[in-house]
Amino acid sequence: MTSAARSQVRAVRKPRRALTVLRRLGRLVAAFVVTLAVLLGIAWVVTPSVDDAQQLVSAELAANGGTPLQGDVPDNLALALIATEDSRFEHHIGIDAIGAVRAAWGALTGDDEGGSTLDQQLAKNLYAGGRQGFGDRVQSVVLALKLDAAWSKDQLLRMYLDDGYYGHGFYGLTAATEGYFGVEPVDLTWSQATLLAGLFQAPSAYDPFLYPDLAADRQAHVLDRLVAVGTLSRTEADEIAAESWDLTPAA
Fold first, then answer.
1. Is the pLDDT of residue 20 over 80?
2. With the C-alpha atoms ordered 48, 54, 60, 62, is the resulting torsion angle positive or negative?
């Protein structure tokens, strides 16, 4: 066989090999998707229903002496919380693709990689007692999908705020706004709303009565996130940061 002929044969074989590799890769991907769908189906059946989510939130709130939120969720607090904790909250189905990868890696390594959606955090608090084991994290993913399917975004946000601990013994948004500022949730200023939105990560550590400097640093992070997602301009954020929180005297 001449050199030219051998070159022609190799030229024909290369596309065939590439096509074979692509076909095998396609079968692997298809097998993975089918396996994942089967596992999700099983998990959907064995995990609890989330129809009682609101009931669980109300029971937890009552047990801690809290009062359910009346009226609409304050817009400024909703925007600050979503920008800080789950910027794609309005668009995902309970889990966020990028965040899910980070959370899965954290579950395997034991490190907190973040990335949990508000739905996942709510599921963890209501159905796993805040536990962080591998099984609990996996369950929170499935339950987050269930929560998003069963409840509206506004209902989920309301439950999240009512179920939250805000530090200084305040459970639920109403107790927090009255305890820290002496106002109803609807009357929150941007300064107060961004302070509260920052408390969810570590409410006791950022208690503004006890650790005002740390609380201010955390509020600055919230304001940075609001600028990053386009809700506020840098000038507006700086003006809010300079405003007083108007805290009531600490009890």
1. no
2. negative
